[in-house]
Amino acid sequence: MKILSWNVNGVRAVFKKGFADWIQQTQPDILCLQETKAEVHQLPIEINALSAYHHDWVSSKTRKGYSGVGLFSKTAPLHIASGFGIQRFDEEGRVQSADFGDFLLFNVYFPNGKASPERLQYKMDFYHAFLSHLTTLLEKGKRIIVVGDVNTAHTAIDLARPKENEKVSGFLPIEREWIDQLLAQGFVDSFRTLHPEGGHYSWWDLKSGARERNVGWRIDYVFVSENLFGRVKSAFMLPDVMGSDHCPVGIEIDEDIRK
């Protein structure tokens, strides 16, 4: 089973850049999108041609054309929901959960903390509330996959210029420590575990031409609970896929994860 995650920086924009052809060629079993920036009635009509996929969308209730997540899957989830039960976070349309029976999948567009001290605090509050939610599920024995744009590079090898960004949101100690806490609670950073070397990034500043020079940040992740990670066959990034300032990331897992 192939699971992909991609911050598309606008689903309407990415459809104009060949998204429908790309998904048909790539054939993911599950595809999670972040920063869709659209309500359901604004989705491109071309989405109807993707008849092999079920799809579901969550949009912001506070601002039009802001945040949002979406999910495509070849097999319909047993249950799908938006948010995680806290209004001040759920109203921004950042979280989608899907129960596929053998595992729970969370598709998350985590807040960005760069705009102001208030947004950084919102980001940290979101982080801690979401981790508390995950911890409760783990304690119940759930197998969990969390994908999305976390908006934080975890360690120095996760961005090209760590020294220059030590005081920038996205690489602050408090943000990085949250990923430490997530891993300590029973999750595995699938890509970093299987690819310990540096030089792999998922986001680049387009205005400065950073992608061509590979001056980027690894801020998009697939976290897998320890009780499921043994079924992960591979973890990867697709930096050659254009259409956004992010590239897709993903994993492949054994179909029968109950083994």
Structure characterization notes:
The chain has 259 residues and is an alpha+beta fold. It has one domain (2-253): Deoxyribonuclease I, Chain A. 25% of the residues lie in helices and 25% in strands. It contains 8 helices and 14 strands. Strands 3-4-2-1-14-13 form a 6-stranded mixed sheet. Strands 5-6-7-8-12-9 form a 6-stranded mixed sheet. It has a two-stranded antiparallel sheet with strand order 10-11. 41% of the residues are buried. The mean pLDDT is 96.
CATH level 4 superfamily: Endonuclease/exonuclease/phosphatase
Question: How many E strands?
Answer: 14
Rg, Å, rounded = 17 Å
Order of neighbouring strands in the sheet with most strands: 3-4-2-1-14-13
How many helices? The count is 8
Summarize the helices and strands and which ones pair or pack.
Elements: E1 2-7, H1 11-15, H2 19-26, E2 30-34, E3 54-58, E4 69-73, E5 79-82, H3 87-90, E6 95-99, E7 104-109, H4 117-139, E8 144-149, H5 173-184, E9 187-189, H6 190-194, E10 203-204, H7 210-213, E11 216-217, E12 220-225, H8 226-229, E13 232-237, E14 249-253
Parallel strand pairs: 1-2, 7-8
Antiparallel strand pairs: 1-14, 2-4, 3-4, 5-6, 6-7, 8-12, 9-12, 10-11, 13-14
Helix pairs in contact: 4-5
Short note summarizing the structure:
25% of the residues lie in helices and 25% in strands. With 259 residues, the protein is of the alpha+beta class. The two termini are 14 Å apart.
List keywords for this structure.
25% strand; 259 residues; 25% helix; alpha+beta; six-stranded mixed beta sheet; 14 strands; Deoxyribonuclease I, Chain A
